[in-house]
Amino acid sequence: MWQTFLFALGLGVFVVGFFSSIKVVPTAYYGVVERFGKRTGRLLDEGLHFVLPFGIDQVEILSYELKTEEVPLTVTSKDGIKIDVGGTIQYRPAKIGEKSNLRREKQLLLTFIEIPDKTIKEGLVGTIRDELGAIAGLCEAKEFIENREALGLLINSVLRLENVPHLATNPPVVPGKRLDFYKDNHPAITKRLKDEGTIGSNSAIEHLYGIDIARFTISKVTFDTLYQQALEAQKEAEKRVESLGKTTDGRIANIKKLIDAGLTAEQAAMAIDVIEGKATRTVSNIDVAGIKDLAVAILSRFVH
Known about the structure:
304 residues, alpha+beta, Tetrahydropterin Synthase, Chain A, three-stranded antiparallel sheet, elongated
């Protein structure tokens, strides 16, 4: 009788132990093994695995899901204009079994597990800001804004390729020439991103945080809000001022107002020509752009 009881007890313990040692990791997830509440460094890819039974080993199931982070930042152009850049970056934990070196893959994933999401986001945004800031500081705002596609290609290359194209040339392409480089080599670099950007080798930033970066997408590259408002106000003032001079009498009256405000007759006449679109460059050593802004500011006082 006792032998039967002990046999049944032993069999029960074995069955419980056996089933408690089995852990199943679902597709698109990975497991982190903890022993007595501390991580062992063992990682489990999707499928069936055996761990120490009776709760000695616990498995935390985590997702490989793609994370999307907003990237809002501001850079300053060579001509001192602030530019707002907005976009999104998508990344996920470095996946076990997707690349050729399993040991390296597991080390990358262990790196990711130990780093807070906030730290990763700040690091990614900082990298993007540094790259775009270096270029913005060497070109006019208009040129920077008009080359949105090249900027996106550059940032994706930095984030996703092991050998960044503009650094792999001999000599490396300096920041002031990088926009032209990415415009001229757009097809070849786009193909590299397609072939290497999501699988294969890891970029420096991916190594640093143990992640795979899927893509960076630029959603806007515009003058910052205050500058945009100033531009719109300037255009509106110019329209109102121009409306005052539709007739010869109006033109003469505007010139007289500018002379009364301290401009010379030549400057006043030139300013009116610029506002009306009849002059577009410096004449007689007169700074057309500066005189235009001054004239608009003066004449705007008379518009109601």
